[in-house]
């Protein structure tokens, strides 16, 4: 394929440089938005009289034909093309002749690729939000089934205080809700059209940037032509939001890995979402969760690649910026793959409430409530804390629990203890009496789940 810019050069490009320079292998995925942007540009050229209305219509019909043939598979991408933009323009010219050569009037590949990337990522953000909402709906659905399932809450991976499984899952629900907000913010900031910025300094043609911005669903044109073609903040911001999202998924994945182990055995994954061992017949491995945890580092790497690529670039466009696509595309693809696999894994898991309750009983996670019991009877908190610590030490030495101690032993440590201490340290009561806003009490958690369901669009079809 002849280069569109070959007129300046006296010899052919070295074949190795052609391969090194080409981006068609990864930017071909943008063909739909590239054609859409070209249609808007052609319509504007015709409307403003820069080219004839007849040529604009011919160009549009030609582009529609190319789109149809690419969608159907009747037309294949030329691997020798430099990029998707040159491929489409060359194919258009071969089909309609001279009018095709007029499409690029008042436009550069710099503003063309910038508008393509914004259009493409805008659509991808919508798809990721849809997948996040599906995962969020799954979190709400599973949590609603276990609002009274007491389990240990942890700090330092040590049993700390009683919560419920629903309360624990709801914490991740709020993380995913914030992820949706971040993605919506990215989309809002990227939704300005660079089309018409030209190579860097706009154009002398009487173009109408507002017209093309509106046609492509943007909130308006970018304000500065230099910034319009050289800005990749939206790629970096998207990769950052996706990295935070993956961090949340990775944290939940780590918990799934722990919960599936025999040491915890809080949940069991469905056979369809686990794998076995080639030699150890007893194994049931949480590979999905482990892969999500591993792929988190991959998305972090994409973010660092984008930051490193942009950190020293002078205005305006530099060829370094071709590296933006593979990094941001990889981050998007990885997140979509993880989200689409994680939701059904969580939905089909079996929650072992009895094991959670047993672990809660053995962890002295009602010690704080024992201290609070004394404090409410007038014992200074620090004294109550010391007495309770001595009781826990006694239980550890005797191999028993606070619930199993007779009242006579309690009174050895403080005369304030009475029979009502057993109600105060009951694990169910310890969890359900934590009615402070945001706590694990059942009614409060149900309220959280209602709010999350509204955020995730419960019942909506994505």
Automatic annotation (TrEMBL):
Occurrences of domain Fumarate lyase N-terminal (ranges): 7-301
Catalytic activity: 2-(N(omega)-L-arginino)succinate = fumarate + L-arginine
Superkingdom of this protein's organism: Bacteria
Transmembrane segments: none
EC number: 4.3.2.1
Key word Transferase present: no
CDD domains: Argininosuccinate_lyase
Domain Argininosuccinate lyase C-terminal: 364-430
InterPro entries for this protein: Arg_succ_lyase_C, Argininosuccinate_lyase, Fumarase/histidase_N, Fumarate_lyase_CS, Fumarate_lyase_fam, Fumarate_lyase_N, L-Aspartase-like
Gene Ontology biological process terms, A to Z: L-arginine biosynthetic process via ornithine
GO MF terms, alphabetically ordered: argininosuccinate lyase activity
Keyword Isomerase included in the entry's annotation: no
Entry's localization field: Cytoplasm
Keyword list, A-Z: Amino-acid biosynthesis, Arginine biosynthesis, Cytoplasm, Lyase
Assigned GO CC terms: cytosol
Metabolic or biological pathway: Amino-acid biosynthesis; L-arginine biosynthesis; L-arginine from L-ornithine and carbamoyl phosphate: step 3/3
Family to which the UniProt record says this protein belongs: Belongs to the lyase 1 family. Argininosuccinate lyase subfamily.
Protein name: Argininosuccinate lyase
Organism: Candidatus Faecivivens stercoravium
Lineage of the organism: Bacteria, Bacillati, Bacillota, Clostridia, Eubacteriales
Gene responsible for this protein: argH
């Amino acid at each position: 394929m002849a280069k569109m810019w070959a007129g300046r050069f006296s010899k052919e490009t070295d074949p190795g440089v052609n391969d090194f320079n080409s981006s068609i292998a990864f930017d071909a995925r943008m063909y739909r938005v590239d054609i859409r942007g070209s249609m808007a540009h052609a319509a504007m050229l015709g409307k403003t009289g820069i080219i004839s209305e007849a040529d604009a219509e011919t160009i549009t019909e030609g582009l529609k034909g190319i789109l149809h043939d690419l969608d159907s598979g009747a037309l294949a991408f030329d691997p020798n093309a430099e990029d998707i933009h040159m491929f489409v323009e060359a194919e258009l010219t071969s089909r309609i002749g001279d009018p095709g050569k007029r499409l690029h009037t008042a436009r550069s590949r710099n503003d063309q690729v910038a508008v393509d990337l914004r259009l493409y990522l805008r659509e991808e953000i919508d798809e990721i939000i849809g997948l996040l909402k599906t995962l969020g709906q799954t979190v709400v659905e599973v949590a609603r089934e276990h609002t009274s399932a007491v389990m240990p809450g942890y700090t330092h991976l040590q049993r700390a205080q009683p919560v419920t499984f629903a309360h624990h899952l709801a914490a991740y629900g709020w993380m995913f809700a914030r992820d949706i907000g971040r993605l919506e913010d990215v989309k809002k900031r990227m939704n300005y059209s660079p089309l018409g910025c030209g190579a860097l300094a706009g154009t002398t043609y009487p173009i109408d940037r507002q017209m093309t911005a509106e046609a492509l669903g943007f909130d308006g044109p970018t304000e500065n032509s230099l910034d319009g073609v050289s800005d990749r903040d939206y790629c970096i911001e998207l990769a950052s939001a996706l990295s935070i999202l993956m961090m949340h998924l990775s944290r939940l994945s780590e918990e799934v890995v722990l919960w599936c182990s025999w040491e915890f055995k809080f949940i069991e994954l469905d056979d369809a979402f686990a794998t076995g061992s080639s030699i150890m017949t007893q194994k049931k491995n949480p590979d999905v969760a482990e892969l999500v945890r591993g792929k988190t580092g991959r998305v972090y790497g994409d973010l660092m690649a984008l930051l490193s690529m942009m950190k020293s670039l002078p205005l305006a466009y530099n060829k370094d910026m071709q590296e933006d696509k593979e990094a941001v595309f990889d981050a998007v693809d990885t997140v979509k793959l993880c989200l689409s696999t994680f939701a059904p894994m969580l939905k089909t898991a079996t929650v072992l409430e009895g094991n959670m309750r047993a672990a809660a009983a053995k962890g002295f996670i009602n010690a704080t409530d024992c201290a609070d019991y004394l404090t409410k009877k007038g014992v200074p908190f620090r004294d109550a804390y010391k007495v309770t610590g001595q009781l826990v030490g006694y239980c550890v030495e005797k191999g028993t629990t606070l619930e199993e101690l007779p009242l006579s032993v309690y009174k050895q440590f403080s005369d304030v203890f009475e029979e009502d201490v057993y109600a105060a340290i009951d694990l169910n009561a310890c969890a359900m009496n934590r009615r402070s806003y945001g706590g694990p009490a059942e009614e409060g958690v149900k309220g959280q789940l209602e709010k999350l369901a509204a955020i995730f669009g419960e019942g909506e079809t994505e």
